[in-house]
Amino acid sequence: MKLKQITAKQFAKETSKFLDQAQRWPLVVRSEKGPALLIRPVSDDDVADELILTSPRFRDSIRRARRNRAAGKGVSLQKVRRIV
């Protein structure tokens, strides 16, 4: 599928129209320097994923888990499967 491309000026002038179009297929907004934005349809899962990935608490928990695993404090997948 070829992406529809518009200029930033077009987007500013007809924002509502292009946001409606972006609900159906991805849209690239180009600045003078090249592609600036990719606007695409999102699902509730996409929103939840973004909230999780940008959460400082989530990122901290991943860092702790990686440190624990490196220190040999991790739980094997086999053990988790036995527990669950």
Blueprint (SSEs and pairs):
Layout lengths: L3 E4 H6 L1 H8 L4 E5 L2 E6 L4 H10 L2 H15 L6 H7 L1
Descriptive overview:
With 84 residues, the chain is α+β, with helices and mostly antiparallel strands. The chain folds into two domains: 4-39; 44-83, no CATH class. Helix content is 55%, strand content 18%. The chain has helices spanning 8-13, 15-22, 44-53, 56-70, 77-83, and strands at 4-7, 27-31, 34-39. The chain has a three-stranded mixed sheet with strand order 1-2-3. The chain is elongated, with a radius of gyration of 21 Å.
Q: What's the gist of this structure?
A:
The chain is 55% helix and 18% strand.
Sequence of strands across the biggest β-sheet: 1-2-3
Using the alpha-carbon principal axes, give the shape.
Answer: elongated
**Terminal Cα span:** 43 Å
Radius of gyration: 21 Å
> What does the oligomeric state look like here?
single chain
Average pLDDT, all residues = 90
Strand content: 15-25%
| Biggest sheet character | 3 strands, mixed
Percent helix: 40-55%
Work out the number of β strands: 3
Derived from helix and strand composition plus strand pairing, the structural class reads: alpha+beta
H-E order = EHHEEHHH
Given as residue ranges, the uncertain stretches (5+ residues, pLDDT < 50) are none
Number of helices: 5
What is the count of distinct domains? 2
